[in-house]
Amino acid sequence: MDLKIEFMDLLWVGGIAALLTGYAIHIYYQYRLKTLSQDSTQKRSDMHLPWNQLLNRQASDVKRFNDVLREHLRTVNRESEESALRVMTHLGLAHENTMLLMQTAQTAVQVSTDWIAKSSRRMEEQSVMLEQLEHVMADTSERDERERQWLDTLTHEVSDLLPMVGMVEQIAKQTNMLALNAAIEAARAGDAGRGFSVVAKSVFELSERASESASVIRSAIGCVSNSIQTQTQAARTQLDQNKTREHIQAIGLKVRELGEQFGQLLAHSQSLSQSLELYASQMKDAISDALGVLQTQDIMRQQLENIELSLDTLDEHIGEWDQQLTSAPDRPDLLPNLGKKLDELFSKYVMHQQRNAHLAAIGEVPDETGLPRIELF
Amino acid sequence: MKSILLIDDSMTMLMSLRQTLEMSGFSVNTASDGVDALNKLKTIPKPDLIITDINMPNMNGIEFIRHARQLFRFTPILTLTTESQQSKREEAKKLGATGWLVKPVGGQDLIRIIKQVVPAA
Question: Which of A111, A189, A267, B31 maximizes the CB count within 10 A of its CB?
Fold first, then answer.
């Protein structure tokens, strides 16, 4: 009983599955039939069009296609020109700023060069004056040295005089004593001593005068000695002047050294000025060359315009085919030849590189020899 | 200061050449084609040098040289062009062009050439 029930169940399930599958297949085929029907309807529709109208439709599509390409080319041209102009503007600004910087730097260098030159000249003048002062002081010093030596000699000689004065005074004193004794003895001698008394009196007077002279001489020697001392003191101050002379010599040496350093600074300043001029010149040359490179934008513009013209040629060609096939479909010999148009294209090229690109594209050998790029007649 | 007339239908060319020349101390006037240049020459002082393109609308460089030589017999005229056809070069030479330069020409090269053709530039 159970086995029978299960078998019946299986039959029911299988039957339902088969029905569903069949229905699914039916739906699928209906869909496919519908799709195929639409395709064939379209094809039957196209097939009903004359083929010249098909060509006309294609020609119109090709033109639209080319219009899109032309617009892309114009966009590239326009944007490259705008970029080139922007670059030129920046290069112009770079040049202006460089010139301004150079002028400022040159002015500063010129001012410092002038100042250094003036200072250097003043150092030289002061150095000359110090040399002259040194010479004058050297002469004075020599003269003062001689004077001092003479004073020293004089001092010694004057000093040597004093003992002699002392001796004269002693002699005068002794003579005085002798005269006094003679006078006393003369008095004791009475009349016989009268003559002797006169002599004694004369001697006494003589000794008095000698004593007075010695006193005067001593006093004079004292004055001379004081005077010599004064002069000697003055001579001693020359020692300070010698020190001053040494100081001046030292200053002169420093001034000369400073003058040499100013000279080196002047040379360095002039070298800096030359370097700035050279840098400005190199910047100008670099900017000039960069501007020259931007000329390639014009070359590219011409090449792109040439491609646009080529697309116009292609449009014309398709249009001519369309017209010819419409008017005389049985005359395929009258259809225009695109190969000839390619030759016409070649003849219109202006640039050597355009010709070479054309030749390379059609499998021919490019012409490597070009005319000189620069020629003066 | 020496003056130069530039003739080219490309604004890029006119601007780049103008900047190069003014940086080197030249005074510059510009024109966009041969017709514009002939009109300009009626109003500006005689230039010391003319630099012209060849392929331009309205009046090309060859025609301009023909007209310009009737106005200025001795003013140097340089062509600066992408044109590379020998026949055009020969025609320009026959009409009185001073030299033929193919673009692009570097700034330093251009100044050097100008100094050769313009006395005391």
Answer: B31
Find the residue in B nearest to A87 (Cα).
Answer: B16
Q: Could you list the pLDDT tens digit for every one of the 377 residues in chain A?
A: 445 556 666 666 666 666 777 666 776 767 676 666 665 555 555 555 677 677 788 888 888 888 888 888 898 889 899 989 888 888 888 888 888 888 887 887 788 778 777 877 887 887 788 788 778 777 877 877 777 787 777 777 767 777 766 776 777 777 777 777 777 776 776 666 666 677 667 767 767 876 777 787 777 777 777 777 777 677 666 656 677 777 777 777 877 777 777 777 778 777 877 887 888 888 888 888 888 889 999 999 999 999 999 999 999 888 888 888 888 878 888 888 888 888 888 888 888 888 888 888 888 888 777 678 888 99
Length of chain B: 121
Mutate to test the interface with A, among B22, B23, B60, B100 (most CBs of A within 10 A): B23
| Contact at CB, B24 and A284, closer than 8 angstroms | yes
Q: In whole angstroms, what is the distance from residue B27 CA to residue B22 CA?
A: 6
Decide if domain A51-294 falls under CATH 2.40.400.10.
no
For chain A, the helix, strand and coil percentages under 3-state DSSP, each to the nearest 5: 90, 0, 10
Complete domains list, chain B, with CATH? 3-117 (3.40.50.2300)
From residue A23, alpha-carbon distances to A17, A18, A20, A27, A29 in Å are 10, 8, 5, 6, 10
Minimum distance, in Å, between the CA of residue A275 and any CA atom of chain B: 19
CB–CB contact B12 A92 (8 Å): no
Contact A287 B107 (CB under 8 A): yes
